């Protein structure tokens, strides 16, 4: 240690001895004092290119502290500094005693590699993060237990910690949590695609279209009835607000389905299939309306846009992906996977599934984004595609023993849904999904909602928008009433057939009331697409006022 300090003093003495010894006027320190304070200052001015790579140049005392205040690091520091001097300093000769730099001798220990600052995170930052995540989980648990709506807890936590109320989280943290939350939303939709039943989706596609159309028309129509005719808002302004509230939150839909019951998997039921399809159609239509609203902003600024292409692009892209994905999966990808890849990837188990899931999900999300449709729709199709790839075994067929080790490996290949549940579901459910709902809370102008007009206008409009989505549930019992009677009751005489058919129809309608109520209440939720539409209308156009935005 003492040897290290002696070498430093010797180097600094030589450096100061090579400079002018005269003092400067006006109370300025002499050249010797300047070089004693900064022994490499003049060297940096003489050779600025040497220090262009932003290498860390620190005093010998700090270098000794960073090395642990021990003589055992003496040799290592010498070697590193010698190499730097030989490689970086033109004409300089490195050594343990120092090198020549611009006519001055500088200790090689003064040049060290850059050291990353690892002390930027303070205790306060850590406590804020810990308390935020603790409030996320606690609020979700309490909301699920008290009002059976666990997704409201993270939204409240986002309001408290975000910009609407206390603004405890810095803006860059909120943006980061917003991105992580959107990843959680995509994973939530992807999980729904993995568990979706294609037969139910295909069998109820017409019912889903009717439900989705009703869920789009009624909010916009009732918005014109109340806002335009009742409150005196503008026509375009009313359309923007109605369009924002016509889209159903796809993420909230899947979250409600996954937490509605511990014994029933609603994704495997008819009402679940209709709900997923209707929410997807609403999502695509919301994206179309967001493009239209953004084009209105361009028109108001004096620009020209191709309105027909803006409207048709998301629709064409969605329909094309809906048609191409099943065809590609059935006739190309599934045969290749089952004959070539499944047997070879079985030895890697979940690891191979994870890699395929990441690749397929990223591919579909990118295709959907660049094609002009919703990335959530792309995530859902990615899950549907992966669920179709592996060969399925008939549960009703008698079990047979595998005849070869390859067949044994193929039989033990886990499904993509099992891999997701084993490796991803916990992170998605307890970290990423709460962050998504907290990011919704970040965007709610909470303090601006408590003016007199905003309160009573908001209450009336909220009730009207709830009714506008509850109407969607009427289609389930209506469909049961309009569907033809079963063939079993058509045998026998006409009177007996009509009575039996009437009883059967009445029983079907009564049985469809509860699923209809569930469908209507699940469609009430608004979320990510609605926020996108209202933000575009407020920031990109001049039609939406502050009162309508609140």
From TrEMBL:
Gene Ontology BP terms: proton transmembrane transport
Record bears the keyword Ion transport: yes
GO cellular component: membrane
Localization: Membrane
GO MF: antiporter activity
Residue spans of biased composition, Polar residues class: 32-45
TM stretches of this protein: 118-138, 150-170, 176-194, 206-233, 239-259, 271-293, 313-333, 354-386, 430-447, 459-482
Region of interest (Disordered), residue spans: 1-45, 85-104
Comp. bias (Gly residues): 15-29, 91-102
Source species of the chain: Friedmanniomyces endolithicus
Domain of life the protein comes from: Eukaryota
Listed Basic and acidic residues bias regions: 1-12
Topology term for the membrane: Multi-pass membrane protein
Domain Cation/H+ exchanger transmembrane: 142-540
Protein name (database record): Cation/H+ exchanger transmembrane domain-containing protein
Gene3D superfamilies: 1.20.1530.20
Keywords for the protein's UniProt record, in alphabetical order: Antiport, Ion transport, Membrane, Transmembrane, Transmembrane helix, Transport
One Pfam family of this chain: Na_H_Exchanger
């Amino acid at each position: 240690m003492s040897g290290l300090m002696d070498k430093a003093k010797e180097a600094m003495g030589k450096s100061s001895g090579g400079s002018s010894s005269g003092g400067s006027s006006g109370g300025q320190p002499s050249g010797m004092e300047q070089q004693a304070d900064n022994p490499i200052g003049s060297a940096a001015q003489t050779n600025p290119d040497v220090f262009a790579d932003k290498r860390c140049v620190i005093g010998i005392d700090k270098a000794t502290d960073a090395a642990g205040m021990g003589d055992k690091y003496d040799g290592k520091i010498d070697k590193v500094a010698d190499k730097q001097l030989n490689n970086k300093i033109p004409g300089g000769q490195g050594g343990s005693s120092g090198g020549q730099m611009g006519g001055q001798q500088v200790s090689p220990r003064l040049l060290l590699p850059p050291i990353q600052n690892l002390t930027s995170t303070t205790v306060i930052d850590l406590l804020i993060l810990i308390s935020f995540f603790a409030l996320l989980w606690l609020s979700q648990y309490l909301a699920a237990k008290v009002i059976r709506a666990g997704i409201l807890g993270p939204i409240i936590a986002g309001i408290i910690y975000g910009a609407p109320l206390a603004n405890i989280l810095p803006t860059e943290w909120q943006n980061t949590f917003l991105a992580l939350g959107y990843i959680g939303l995509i994973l939530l939709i992807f999980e729904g695609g993995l568990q979706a039943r294609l037969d139910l989706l295909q069998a109820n596609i017409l019912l889903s279209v009717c439900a989705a159309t009703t869920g789009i028309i009624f909010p916009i129509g009732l918005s014109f009835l109340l806002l335009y005719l009742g409150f005196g808002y503008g026509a375009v302004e009313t359309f923007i607000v109605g369009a924002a509230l016509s889209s159903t939150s796809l993420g909230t839909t899947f979250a409600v389905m996954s937490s509605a019951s511990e014994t029933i998997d609603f994704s495997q039921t008819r009402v679940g299939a209709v709900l997923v399809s209707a929410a997807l159609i609403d999502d695509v239509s919301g994206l179309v309306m967001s493009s239209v609203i953004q084009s209105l902003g361009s028109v108001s600024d004096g620009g020209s846009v191709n309105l027909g292409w803006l409207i048709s692009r998301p629709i064409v892209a969605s329909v094309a992906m809906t048609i191409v994905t099943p065809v590609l999966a059935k006739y190309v990808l599934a045969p290749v996977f089952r004959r070539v890849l499944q047997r070879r990837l079985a030895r890697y188990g979940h690891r191979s599934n994870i890699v395929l899931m990441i690749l397929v999900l990223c591919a579909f999300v990118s295709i959907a984004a660049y094609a002009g449709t919703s990335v959530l729709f792309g995530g859902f199709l990615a899950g549907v595609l992966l669920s179709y790839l592996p060969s399925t075994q008939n549960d009703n067929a008698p079990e047979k023993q595998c005849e070869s080790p390859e067949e044994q490996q193929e039989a033990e290949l886990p499904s993509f849904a099992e891999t997701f549940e084993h490796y991803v579901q916990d992170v998605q459910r307890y970290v990423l999904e709460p962050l998504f709902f907290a990011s919704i809370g970040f965007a709610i102008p909470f303090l601006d909602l408590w003016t007199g007009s905003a309160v009573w206008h908001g209450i009336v409009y909220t009730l009207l928008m709830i009714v506008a989505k509850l109407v969607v549930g009427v289609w389930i019992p209506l469909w049961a009433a309009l569907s033809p009677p079963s063939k079993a009751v058509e045998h026998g005489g006409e009177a007996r057939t009509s009575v039996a058919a009437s009883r059967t129809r009445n029983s079907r309608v009564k049985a469809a009331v509860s699923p209809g109520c569930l469908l209507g209440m699940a469609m009430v939720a608004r979320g990510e697409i609605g926020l996108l539409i209202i933000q575009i209308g407020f920031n990109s156009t001049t039609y939406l006022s502050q009162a309508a935005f609140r």
